[in-house]
Design goal:
CATH topology of the largest domain: Creatine Kinase, Chain A, domain 2
Protein name: Protein-arginine kinase
Number of helices: 12
Number of strands: 10
CATH architecture of the largest domain: 2-Layer Sandwich
Helix content: 40-55%
EC number: 2.7.14.1
CATH class of the largest domain: Alpha Beta
Function: Catalyzes the specific phosphorylation of arginine residues in proteins.
Largest sheet: 8 strands, antiparallel
Strand content: 15-25%
GO biological process, one term: phosphocreatine biosynthetic process
Shape: globular
Radius of gyration: 21 Å
Order of helices and strands: EHEHHEEEHEEEHHEEHHHHHH
Structural class: alpha+beta
Strand order of the largest sheet: 2-3-4-5-1-8-10-9
Keywords: Allosteric enzyme, ATP-binding, Kinase, Nucleotide-binding, Transferase
Length: about 350
Protein backbone atom coordinates (compact mmCIF):
# COMPACT_ATOMS: atom_id res chain seq x y z
CA UNK A 1 0.00 0.00 0.00
CA UNK A 2 1.41 3.35 -1.05
CA UNK A 3 1.44 6.09 1.52
CA UNK A 4 -0.72 8.07 -0.88
CA UNK A 5 -3.08 5.25 -1.89
CA UNK A 6 -5.79 6.40 0.52
CA UNK A 7 -6.11 9.58 -1.55
CA UNK A 8 -6.46 7.72 -4.86
CA UNK A 9 -9.85 6.14 -4.17
CA UNK A 10 -12.89 7.29 -2.20
CA UNK A 11 -14.21 3.99 -0.91
CA UNK A 12 -12.72 1.93 1.86
CA UNK A 13 -13.94 -1.67 2.20
CA UNK A 14 -16.31 -0.72 5.01
CA UNK A 15 -18.07 1.81 2.74
CA UNK A 16 -19.07 -0.61 -0.03
CA UNK A 17 -22.78 -0.56 0.89
CA UNK A 18 -22.85 -4.19 2.03
CA UNK A 19 -23.43 -5.95 5.34
CA UNK A 20 -26.53 -6.64 7.45
CA UNK A 21 -29.20 -3.88 7.48
CA UNK A 22 -27.02 -1.91 5.04
CA UNK A 23 -29.98 0.11 3.73
CA UNK A 24 -30.11 1.87 7.12
CA UNK A 25 -26.82 1.17 8.92
CA UNK A 26 -23.93 2.49 6.84
CA UNK A 27 -21.19 1.28 9.19
CA UNK A 28 -20.35 -0.06 12.64
CA UNK A 29 -17.31 1.21 14.52
CA UNK A 30 -15.37 0.30 17.64
CA UNK A 31 -12.71 2.66 19.01
CA UNK A 32 -10.48 1.72 21.94
CA UNK A 33 -8.48 4.37 23.83
CA UNK A 34 -5.26 3.36 25.61
CA UNK A 35 -2.27 5.14 27.17
CA UNK A 36 1.21 4.04 28.21
CA UNK A 37 2.01 3.88 31.89
CA UNK A 38 4.48 6.45 33.20
CA UNK A 39 4.17 8.90 30.30
CA UNK A 40 2.09 12.12 30.19
CA UNK A 41 -1.02 12.22 28.03
CA UNK A 42 -0.24 13.60 24.54
CA UNK A 43 -1.48 17.12 25.30
CA UNK A 44 1.08 17.42 28.14
CA UNK A 45 3.94 15.48 26.57
CA UNK A 46 7.21 17.00 25.41
CA UNK A 47 8.39 16.46 21.85
CA UNK A 48 10.80 13.80 23.07
CA UNK A 49 8.09 11.98 25.02
CA UNK A 50 5.78 12.05 21.98
CA UNK A 51 8.58 10.60 19.86
CA UNK A 52 9.17 7.90 22.46
CA UNK A 53 5.49 6.90 22.30
CA UNK A 54 5.68 6.94 18.50
CA UNK A 55 8.69 4.63 18.39
CA UNK A 56 7.26 2.16 20.91
CA UNK A 57 3.85 1.85 19.27
CA UNK A 58 4.86 1.94 15.60
CA UNK A 59 7.34 -0.84 16.34
CA UNK A 60 4.42 -3.26 16.79
CA UNK A 61 3.50 -3.61 13.09
CA UNK A 62 7.18 -3.76 12.19
CA UNK A 63 7.57 -6.92 14.28
CA UNK A 64 4.86 -8.63 12.23
CA UNK A 65 2.55 -9.10 15.22
CA UNK A 66 -0.35 -7.56 13.30
CA UNK A 67 0.04 -9.88 10.29
CA UNK A 68 -2.60 -12.18 11.74
CA UNK A 69 -5.26 -9.51 11.16
CA UNK A 70 -3.98 -7.90 7.95
CA UNK A 71 -1.29 -5.85 6.23
CA UNK A 72 -0.48 -2.48 7.79
CA UNK A 73 1.57 0.59 6.98
CA UNK A 74 2.57 3.40 9.31
CA UNK A 75 2.01 6.93 8.03
CA UNK A 76 3.42 9.87 9.95
CA UNK A 77 1.16 12.89 9.77
CA UNK A 78 4.20 15.15 9.38
CA UNK A 79 4.83 13.47 5.99
CA UNK A 80 1.40 14.48 4.67
CA UNK A 81 0.10 17.71 3.22
CA UNK A 82 -2.82 19.53 4.81
CA UNK A 83 -5.10 18.24 2.04
CA UNK A 84 -3.98 14.64 2.52
CA UNK A 85 -4.73 14.90 6.22
CA UNK A 86 -8.15 16.28 5.40
CA UNK A 87 -8.83 13.35 3.06
CA UNK A 88 -8.03 10.94 5.90
CA UNK A 89 -10.59 12.76 8.08
CA UNK A 90 -13.21 12.72 5.32
CA UNK A 91 -12.74 8.95 4.96
CA UNK A 92 -13.13 8.57 8.77
CA UNK A 93 -9.62 7.10 9.04
CA UNK A 94 -8.31 9.70 11.50
CA UNK A 95 -9.97 12.23 13.76
CA UNK A 96 -9.94 16.01 13.11
CA UNK A 97 -7.95 16.28 16.34
CA UNK A 98 -5.13 14.10 14.99
CA UNK A 99 -5.19 15.91 11.64
CA UNK A 100 -4.48 19.16 13.45
CA UNK A 101 -1.73 17.67 15.64
CA UNK A 102 1.56 19.37 14.84
CA UNK A 103 3.92 16.96 16.60
CA UNK A 104 4.38 13.26 16.86
CA UNK A 105 1.14 11.99 15.29
CA UNK A 106 0.77 8.91 13.09
CA UNK A 107 -1.78 6.42 11.80
CA UNK A 108 -1.14 2.70 11.35
CA UNK A 109 -3.50 1.86 8.48
CA UNK A 110 -4.62 -1.53 7.19
CA UNK A 111 -4.49 -2.08 3.43
CA UNK A 112 -8.30 -2.28 3.19
CA UNK A 113 -8.68 0.76 5.48
CA UNK A 114 -11.01 -1.10 7.84
CA UNK A 115 -8.54 -0.65 10.69
CA UNK A 116 -6.85 2.62 11.58
CA UNK A 117 -4.67 2.85 14.67
CA UNK A 118 -4.00 6.44 15.74
CA UNK A 119 -0.85 7.30 17.67
CA UNK A 120 -0.55 10.45 19.81
CA UNK A 121 -4.07 11.67 19.23
CA UNK A 122 -5.94 12.65 22.43
CA UNK A 123 -4.59 9.40 23.85
CA UNK A 124 -1.33 7.60 23.06
CA UNK A 125 -3.19 4.84 21.21
CA UNK A 126 -6.61 4.72 19.62
CA UNK A 127 -7.57 1.51 17.83
CA UNK A 128 -10.45 1.93 15.38
CA UNK A 129 -12.20 -0.90 13.52
CA UNK A 130 -14.90 -0.26 10.93
CA UNK A 131 -17.31 -2.79 9.42
CA UNK A 132 -19.99 -2.28 6.75
CA UNK A 133 -23.60 -2.48 7.86
CA UNK A 134 -24.78 -3.58 11.28
CA UNK A 135 -21.81 -5.60 12.57
CA UNK A 136 -20.90 -4.00 15.88
CA UNK A 137 -20.04 -7.32 17.57
CA UNK A 138 -17.72 -8.28 14.72
CA UNK A 139 -15.98 -4.90 14.92
CA UNK A 140 -15.49 -5.40 18.66
CA UNK A 141 -13.97 -8.86 18.19
CA UNK A 142 -11.37 -7.49 15.76
CA UNK A 143 -10.58 -4.43 17.90
CA UNK A 144 -10.14 -6.66 20.94
CA UNK A 145 -7.69 -8.88 19.08
CA UNK A 146 -5.60 -5.88 18.04
CA UNK A 147 -5.75 -4.49 21.58
CA UNK A 148 -4.38 -7.78 22.90
CA UNK A 149 -1.50 -7.63 20.41
CA UNK A 150 -0.46 -4.15 21.55
CA UNK A 151 -0.86 -5.09 25.20
CA UNK A 152 1.77 -7.80 24.76
CA UNK A 153 4.44 -5.12 24.28
CA UNK A 154 2.89 -1.98 25.81
CA UNK A 155 2.40 -1.40 29.53
CA UNK A 156 -1.03 0.25 29.62
CA UNK A 157 -2.00 2.88 32.17
CA UNK A 158 -4.54 0.99 34.27
CA UNK A 159 -6.09 1.47 37.70
CA UNK A 160 -7.73 -1.45 39.52
CA UNK A 161 -10.69 0.70 40.57
CA UNK A 162 -11.08 3.05 37.62
CA UNK A 163 -9.99 0.83 34.76
CA UNK A 164 -8.03 2.13 31.76
CA UNK A 165 -6.88 5.72 32.27
CA UNK A 166 -7.59 8.15 29.44
CA UNK A 167 -7.08 11.81 28.65
CA UNK A 168 -10.83 12.51 28.64
CA UNK A 169 -12.71 11.42 31.80
CA UNK A 170 -15.65 10.18 29.71
CA UNK A 171 -13.45 7.41 28.30
CA UNK A 172 -12.08 6.18 31.64
CA UNK A 173 -13.02 2.58 32.41
CA UNK A 174 -13.23 0.30 29.41
CA UNK A 175 -11.93 3.01 27.08
CA UNK A 176 -14.32 1.72 24.43
CA UNK A 177 -16.50 3.82 22.15
CA UNK A 178 -18.97 1.82 20.07
CA UNK A 179 -21.00 3.52 17.36
CA UNK A 180 -23.17 2.93 14.32
CA UNK A 181 -23.64 5.39 11.45
CA UNK A 182 -27.28 5.35 10.39
CA UNK A 183 -29.19 6.82 7.45
CA UNK A 184 -32.54 7.95 8.86
CA UNK A 185 -34.46 9.94 6.22
CA UNK A 186 -37.76 8.26 7.10
CA UNK A 187 -37.68 9.48 10.70
CA UNK A 188 -36.59 12.95 9.58
CA UNK A 189 -39.26 13.35 6.88
CA UNK A 190 -42.05 12.04 9.13
CA UNK A 191 -40.87 14.43 11.87
CA UNK A 192 -40.19 11.68 14.40
CA UNK A 193 -36.45 12.18 14.64
CA UNK A 194 -36.41 14.60 17.60
CA UNK A 195 -38.55 12.28 19.72
CA UNK A 196 -36.34 9.30 18.84
CA UNK A 197 -33.09 11.16 19.51
CA UNK A 198 -34.40 12.43 22.84
CA UNK A 199 -35.22 8.87 23.89
CA UNK A 200 -31.74 7.73 22.82
CA UNK A 201 -29.98 10.22 25.10
CA UNK A 202 -32.08 9.06 28.06
CA UNK A 203 -30.63 5.54 27.84
CA UNK A 204 -26.99 6.64 27.99
CA UNK A 205 -26.26 7.00 24.28
CA UNK A 206 -25.03 10.03 22.35
CA UNK A 207 -26.08 11.30 18.92
CA UNK A 208 -23.54 13.07 16.71
CA UNK A 209 -23.11 14.13 13.11
CA UNK A 210 -21.28 12.30 10.36
CA UNK A 211 -17.81 13.32 11.58
CA UNK A 212 -18.40 12.82 15.28
CA UNK A 213 -18.57 15.27 18.15
CA UNK A 214 -19.46 18.81 17.13
CA UNK A 215 -20.30 17.91 13.52
CA UNK A 216 -23.62 18.41 11.75
CA UNK A 217 -25.92 15.53 10.80
CA UNK A 218 -25.74 16.21 7.06
CA UNK A 219 -27.66 14.04 4.62
CA UNK A 220 -29.78 12.50 7.40
CA UNK A 221 -26.72 10.61 8.65
CA UNK A 222 -26.40 10.18 12.41
CA UNK A 223 -23.77 8.50 14.60
CA UNK A 224 -25.22 6.74 17.63
CA UNK A 225 -22.66 5.81 20.30
CA UNK A 226 -22.26 5.01 23.99
CA UNK A 227 -21.59 7.88 26.41
CA UNK A 228 -20.57 5.82 29.44
CA UNK A 229 -17.38 3.76 29.64
CA UNK A 230 -17.02 3.52 33.43
CA UNK A 231 -19.09 1.02 35.45
CA UNK A 232 -20.10 -1.09 32.45
CA UNK A 233 -18.34 -4.00 30.78
CA UNK A 234 -17.51 -4.00 27.09
CA UNK A 235 -20.25 -6.59 26.53
CA UNK A 236 -22.86 -4.46 28.28
CA UNK A 237 -21.90 -1.38 26.27
CA UNK A 238 -22.14 -3.22 22.97
CA UNK A 239 -25.36 -5.01 23.89
CA UNK A 240 -27.03 -1.73 24.88
CA UNK A 241 -26.02 -0.05 21.62
CA UNK A 242 -27.08 -3.10 19.59
CA UNK A 243 -30.49 -3.21 21.26
CA UNK A 244 -31.20 0.51 20.78
CA UNK A 245 -29.90 0.52 17.20
CA UNK A 246 -32.19 -2.41 16.35
CA UNK A 247 -35.17 -0.44 17.66
CA UNK A 248 -34.15 2.58 15.58
CA UNK A 249 -33.89 0.35 12.50
CA UNK A 250 -37.43 -0.91 13.13
CA UNK A 251 -38.75 2.66 13.56
CA UNK A 252 -36.99 3.80 10.37
CA UNK A 253 -38.44 0.92 8.37
CA UNK A 254 -41.93 1.68 9.69
CA UNK A 255 -41.52 5.37 8.78
CA UNK A 256 -40.45 4.46 5.24
CA UNK A 257 -43.40 2.12 4.81
CA UNK A 258 -45.73 4.82 6.08
CA UNK A 259 -44.43 7.30 3.50
CA UNK A 260 -44.79 4.77 0.68
CA UNK A 261 -48.40 3.99 1.59
CA UNK A 262 -49.63 7.44 2.64
CA UNK A 263 -47.68 9.88 0.45
CA UNK A 264 -46.08 7.92 -2.36
CA UNK A 265 -46.49 10.64 -5.00
CA UNK A 266 -44.82 13.26 -2.77
CA UNK A 267 -42.06 10.80 -1.94
CA UNK A 268 -41.45 9.98 -5.61
CA UNK A 269 -41.43 13.67 -6.47
CA UNK A 270 -38.82 14.38 -3.80
CA UNK A 271 -36.60 11.48 -4.87
CA UNK A 272 -36.76 12.13 -8.63
CA UNK A 273 -36.51 15.90 -8.21
CA UNK A 274 -33.24 15.42 -6.31
CA UNK A 275 -32.05 12.89 -8.88
CA UNK A 276 -32.77 15.35 -11.68
CA UNK A 277 -31.00 18.22 -9.94
CA UNK A 278 -27.94 16.08 -9.19
CA UNK A 279 -27.86 14.95 -12.82
CA UNK A 280 -27.95 18.47 -14.28
CA UNK A 281 -26.87 21.09 -11.74
CA UNK A 282 -23.83 23.26 -12.57
CA UNK A 283 -23.08 24.37 -9.02
CA UNK A 284 -23.86 22.75 -5.67
CA UNK A 285 -22.68 23.30 -2.11
CA UNK A 286 -21.84 20.45 0.25
CA UNK A 287 -25.00 20.77 2.34
CA UNK A 288 -27.35 20.56 -0.64
CA UNK A 289 -25.41 17.69 -2.22
CA UNK A 290 -25.56 15.68 1.02
CA UNK A 291 -29.32 16.18 1.28
CA UNK A 292 -30.02 15.31 -2.35
CA UNK A 293 -27.74 12.28 -2.22
CA UNK A 294 -29.73 11.19 0.83
CA UNK A 295 -32.99 11.54 -1.13
CA UNK A 296 -31.61 9.43 -3.98
CA UNK A 297 -30.24 6.85 -1.55
CA UNK A 298 -33.73 6.56 -0.04
CA UNK A 299 -35.16 6.08 -3.54
CA UNK A 300 -32.67 3.29 -4.22
CA UNK A 301 -33.46 1.51 -0.94
CA UNK A 302 -37.21 1.71 -1.63
CA UNK A 303 -36.83 0.41 -5.18
CA UNK A 304 -37.91 3.67 -6.81
CA UNK A 305 -34.54 4.02 -8.56
CA UNK A 306 -33.29 0.78 -10.08
CA UNK A 307 -30.05 1.58 -11.90
CA UNK A 308 -27.97 3.36 -9.25
CA UNK A 309 -26.31 1.49 -6.38
CA UNK A 310 -25.87 2.43 -2.72
CA UNK A 311 -22.14 1.99 -3.36
CA UNK A 312 -22.18 4.96 -5.75
CA UNK A 313 -23.98 7.09 -3.17
CA UNK A 314 -21.35 6.22 -0.55
CA UNK A 315 -18.59 7.03 -3.02
CA UNK A 316 -20.10 10.39 -3.94
CA UNK A 317 -20.56 11.25 -0.28
CA UNK A 318 -16.77 11.08 0.13
CA UNK A 319 -15.70 12.34 -3.30
CA UNK A 320 -17.70 15.54 -2.86
CA UNK A 321 -16.05 16.53 0.42
CA UNK A 322 -13.81 19.65 0.24
CA UNK A 323 -10.52 17.85 0.86
CA UNK A 324 -11.13 15.12 -1.70
CA UNK A 325 -12.29 17.61 -4.33
CA UNK A 326 -9.10 19.63 -3.94
CA UNK A 327 -6.82 16.59 -3.69
CA UNK A 328 -8.18 15.21 -6.96
CA UNK A 329 -7.96 18.64 -8.61
CA UNK A 330 -4.34 18.94 -7.55
CA UNK A 331 -4.81 22.44 -6.16
CA UNK A 332 -6.60 24.46 -3.52
CA UNK A 333 -10.01 25.65 -4.67
CA UNK A 334 -12.19 28.53 -3.56
CA UNK A 335 -15.62 27.76 -2.14
CA UNK A 336 -17.29 28.55 -5.48
CA UNK A 337 -14.77 26.47 -7.40
CA UNK A 338 -15.44 23.54 -5.07
CA UNK A 339 -19.20 23.91 -5.60
CA UNK A 340 -18.72 23.88 -9.39
CA UNK A 341 -16.37 20.89 -9.28
CA UNK A 342 -18.73 19.04 -6.91
CA UNK A 343 -21.68 19.41 -9.29
CA UNK A 344 -19.52 18.37 -12.26
CA UNK A 345 -18.27 15.27 -10.50
CA UNK A 346 -21.80 14.17 -9.50
CA UNK A 347 -23.04 14.70 -13.07
CA UNK A 348 -20.17 12.62 -14.44
CA UNK A 349 -20.92 9.71 -12.12
CA UNK A 350 -24.65 9.69 -12.78
CA UNK A 351 -24.23 10.06 -16.55
CA UNK A 352 -21.64 7.27 -16.58
CA UNK A 353 -24.29 5.07 -14.99
CA UNK A 354 -26.73 6.00 -17.78
CA UNK A 355 -24.20 5.32 -20.52
CA UNK A 356 -23.39 1.82 -19.23
CA UNK A 357 -26.79 0.73 -18.02
CA UNK A 358 -26.05 0.70 -14.31
CA UNK A 359 -23.16 0.63 -11.89
Amino acid sequence: MSKRSFAQHALSDWMQGTGPEADIVISSRIRIARNLRGLPFPMLATNQQSEDVMERLTAVPETGRLNAVGKFETIRLSDLSELERRVLVEKHLISPNLANESRGGAVILSDNESVSIMVNEEDHLRIQCLYPGFQISEAWELASRIDDIFEEVADYAFDERRGFLTSCPTNVGTGIRASVMMHLPGLVLTQQINRILSAITQVGLAVRGIYGEGSEALGNLFQISNQITLGQSEGEIIENLHSVAKQIIDHERAARERMVHESRIRLEDRVFRSYGILSHASIMDSKESAQRLSDVRLGIDLGLIQDVTPRMMNELLVLTQPGFLQQNSGEKLSAEQRDIRRAELIRQHLHRKSDHGGV
